[in-house]
Amino acid sequence: MTITYVTAGPDGVDPNAFTIKNREEIYIPKAPPPQPPLQRGSTITNLGSLRQVNKQLNVACAVFFLFVYGGMDFAHSAGWNQTLNTTATQVFKCSWFIGVLAGAAVASLAMTFLPKMTFYVLGGIMQLIGSIIFTCAPFHYGCLLAARYVAGAGIGLITVPFLIHSAEVASDNYRGVSGSMEQCGLALGIAIQVIYDTQWVEDKEASVNEVHGIIGIVFSLLGLGMTALSIESPIHHLRRNQEEKARECHKKLLGSFNISEDLAFEEVKYYVQESQKRTFFQELWSSVVPFIKLLLYRGFVAFSFSLPLSESLIKSTLQTEGYISCWPVTVWGMVRLLGALVAQGFLDKMGRKLLSLVGLLCMAILMLCMAVSYADPANVLLTYYMNQVWKLGVAFQAFAGLFVCSSSVYLGEAFPMKVKPLLVGYIVGFEQTVHIINIVGYNRGSETFFYHYYLSVGIILFVGVIFFGLVIPETKKITLRDAGKRFQRWHNIRLF
Question: Under 8 Å CB-to-CB from 35, ≥6 apart: which residues?
Answer without folding.
Answer: none
